[in-house]
Amino acid sequence: MVETPPSIVVRLYFAAMLGIFAFAPSYIAFWTLVEVLKAPLSTPVDAVVILAVCIPLSYFLVLLAYRSITWKGRSSDGDLLPPLAMLLFAAFFALVGVAAFVLTLWHREYLKSLLAIAYLAAAIPIARAYWRRLVGT
Questions:
Q1: For residue range 6-46, what is the model confidence (pLDDT) as tens digits?
Q2: How many other CB atoms are there within 10 angstroms of residue 5's CB atom?
Q3: Winning range, highest mean pLDDT, from 21-35, 51-65, 74-88
Q4: CA distances from 94 to 52, 81, 105, 117 (A)
Q5: CA 18 – CA 8 distance, rounded (Å)
Q6: 21: buried, middle or exposed (CB in 10 Å: 19+, 13-18, 0-12)?
Q7: Alpha carbon distances (Å) from 45 to 12, 69, 98, 119, 121
Q8: Helix, strand, or coil here: 81?
């Protein structure tokens, strides 16, 4: 059964919504990068983590916004993004959990470190599913 795409108004609405979601990490990454470039030798670890999270997240959301405007998936399987891109995003998702765990331990916020472990535990099944799909098992 062939799925008909929604009207252009609905597609533009989805793209605008994803664009708004992409604006927040892009804004954060831009101003963090400005602060890092002002004093590169005194860059805190938090700024590196912020950039490592916000740049891939921005790229992912902008790519989804583009795909929602065109309403075309990949020609090979119809998905919005290739399995490798989804695996990389899941890996970044897991990296956020690891970084949050390390930073909360560093700042001695032990309750928040438990939340970071839960975040990481949510990322692992996502990465495993896309890994299986990528290697074909």
A1: 788 888 888 888 888 889 999 999 999 999 999 888 888 88
A2: 10
A3: 21-35
A4: 12, 18, 17, 10
A5: 15
A6: middle
A7: 38, 37, 13, 20, 23
A8: coil
Q: What pTM was computed for the model?
A: 0.59
- List C-alpha distances in Å: 40 to 7, 27, 52, 81: 48, 19, 16, 35
DSSP 100: H
Gap between the Cα atoms of 54 and 86, Å rounded: 16
| Residue 36: closest CA among 22, 57, 54 | 54
CA distance 102 to 110: 10
Given a contact cutoff of 8 angstroms between Cβ atoms, the answer to whether 25 and 57 are in contact is: yes
Give the position of tokens 């939340």.
115
Residue 71's Cα: distance from chain center in Å?
20
Nearest-5° Cα angle at 28, 24 to 33: 150
For residue 33, give the amino acid letter: L
Q: What is the DSSP letter of 40?
A: G
